[in-house]
Specification:
Helix content is 29%, strand content 15%. With 312 residues, it is an alpha/beta fold. It has one domain: Alpha/Beta hydrolase fold, catalytic domain (Rossmann fold). The strands form 2 sheets. Strands 1-2-4-3-5-6-9 form a 7-stranded mixed beta sheet, sandwiched between helices. The relative contact order is 0.15.
Amino acid sequence: MPDVHPPALPVVYDPRARHVTFFSPALGISRSFYIYIPPDVDDYRRAPALYLLRGHEREWVNPFEDASRGGTTVIDVYEQQRAAGRVGPLVLVFPGTSSDDNRVPGMLINMRAPALANGTTGLGSGRFADFFFDDLLPYVDQHFPVITGGRARGVAGFSLGGAMAVSAAARRPDLFACAGAYDGTFLYACDHGRRVRKRDRVVGNPMFDPAYGVPRDTIFVARHNAANLILRGETRALQRVTWIISYGPEQHEPWQSNYYRGEHLLACLKARGLANALADPVLPDGDHSWRTADRFIALTLPLYDRALRAAD
């Protein structure tokens, strides 16, 4: 008889989160995400949704994503805030935005040259913007007990996830009431928001070859970069979003803080008359770790909650 192996079961990183796989027409493949639904949320008692981004869908719900976390996840953070009465019911969604091995970031864009991923699985057509906006958001709205509509949906992220979160809300402010980032890897906008800095070490990183193409077209890159989108977006639409930006201290640059990139994004927000919901964006002892990313969520969950429950 042939050796038949059953399909591999998804890893249970946190038993409170459900692992979901669905077919994405945009990518032409199946993709997975995790979703956490509080026990008191159901089809009769729906809740706003907060999307949390990084790279692989496991990262926010893996208690050992790095050694700093100490065996907890962001679901613990939410449940502690909920128990303290600081937030109400929220559905947390954890999308995958990278290759299956987490080596190639999709960046929530329709990738310029996905063939440069050299057969890395999980990218499909590379159309991650269409996957996120046209496939994932409607799928969650249709299949889970969330309040639909942009005023009941938020997005936040850590590192590249923070850059993607702010970019997503700046591109489609109609779809999100709030957007946040801890230590976001924002690119530097120049030429009045038309281009990005060519010599930025992040822009040149080879892991972005599939997303941005080779050679780099800085106009294409700028079209999806958060700072550029803030500078060139429609002011009234951007004003409808609550922006929640934080980053590590200057002394932890360059490897444990994106202080200068965060400062640049805040300057772009200020140039458009847009406020940061955090009076002090710097976490004094923060570093580029999951410990601090989770602490950022603990600090800011009440801000997301308030924005998601505000009357339209």
